[in-house]
Amino acid sequence: MHDATIRLRPTPPFDLSASLRFLGRFPATEGEQFVDDTHLVKALREGGLTVLVRLSSRGTIEEPDVACELVADEPITEPAIAAVSDRLRFWLGLDDDVAELYLRADEVFATVVRRLYGYHQVKFPSPLENVCWAILAQRAPRRVAQAAKRRLIECFDNHVELDGTGYRAFPDLAQLRSLTDARLAELVRNDRKSTYLRGAFESLAQVDEQFLRSGPYDDVKSYLLSIPGIGPWSASFVLIRGLGRTDEMPFDKEGAAAASRVYGRELTEGEFVDLASRYGPWQGYWGHYLRAVTG
């Protein structure tokens, strides 16, 4: 067993406990990590290495400091530490300057800010995982999507044990691409979705994740729409929840319902769009906060 320790300095304000509360009820990763009021333990797959991360807060909301212990069965190299650090910063939104969002708050949204103060959006750990979930969850009960995702995870030996408890990481792209079509169909148990996933794996293998994270918004959106099985709703879902690209907040049933509950009246599409536009490049964050506070 090999270990290492890193320290992560989030952009303030940052409240790890708010992130943990969100993760504790996020259905897409349910049962894939340990979460309590102060700690997070999860396995990640980076650079061909499965690493267990254990995070805890060592600072305050205004002066945040997150300690992270790394554990792996193989040596943890400096490149691996850098890759895991980058993944954690991305996944937990540690560099998000939410103070910019708060400055735009209208009177109603200010009450949401007070409840979620310091919460940075917890995304899917990677756009790959988000794309997979978007396809698996299409027109399917949550439990069916969760079961299919769990079979994909358990298909590979991305396993690390800590204190008698085993954790499995979501497979990396190379592993998923190694599955035969027959094996993928067997795991997914839906021919259409297994075909979509195969196409998504091959498409994602042709792009760099940094392009998805920071390339021109319209170019990234167009690329996502080209992935088999990813339509307008799923593309928006991945942009916001898989990439933290919050430039747009399209009107949809769930978002409108959350906004209507917070603003205390049934919002029309026009009213929803007008409210979202107030938040400029933060409108996706505004929408996520509304769902987080009402979910």
List the helices and strands and how they pair.
Layout: E1 2-8, H1 16-23, E2 33-35, E3 39-46, E4 49-57, E5 66-72, H2 78-91, H3 98-103, H4 107-116, H5 127-136, H6 142-154, E6 159-162, E7 165-168, H7 173-177, H8 181-188, H9 191-204, H10 209-214, H11 217-226, H12 232-242, H13 253-263, H14 269-277, H15 283-294
Antiparallel strand pairs: 1-5, 2-3, 3-4, 4-5, 6-7
Helix pairs in contact: 4-15, 5-9, 5-12, 8-9, 11-12, 13-15
Q: What would the average pLDDT be, to the nearest integer?
A: 97
The level-1 CATH class of the largest domain: Mainly Alpha
For this structure, the CATH topology of the largest domain is Endonuclease III, domain 1
Number of E-state strands:
7
Helical residue percent band: 40-55%
Q: Beta fraction of the residues?
A: 5-15%
| End-to-end gap | 39 Å
User: Which sequence of strands runs across the widest sheet?
Assistant: 1-5-4-3-2
Descriptive account of the structure:
There is one protein chain. By secondary structure, the chain is an alpha+beta fold. It folds into three domains: 2-104, DNA-3-methyladenine glycosylase AlkA, N-terminal domain (TATA-Binding Protein), CATH 3.30.310; 127-242, Hypothetical protein, domain 2 (Endonuclease III, domain 1); 253-294, no CATH class. The protein contains 15 helices and seven strands. The protein has helices at 16-23, 78-91, 98-103, 107-116, 127-136, 142-154, 173-177, 181-188, 191-204, 209-214, 217-226, 232-242, 253-263, 269-277, 283-294, and strands at 2-8, 33-35, 39-46, 49-57, 66-72, 159-162, 165-168. The strands form two sheets. A five-stranded antiparallel β-sheet has the order 1-5-4-3-2. A two-stranded antiparallel sheet has the order 6-7. Strand 3 (39-46) and strand 4 (49-57) form a beta hairpin. Helix 11 crosses helix 12. The longest helix is centred in the first third of the chain and has 14 residues, at 78-91. The radius of gyration is 19 Å and the shape is globular. The N and C termini lie far apart (39 Å). The model has no long low-confidence stretch (mean pLDDT 97).
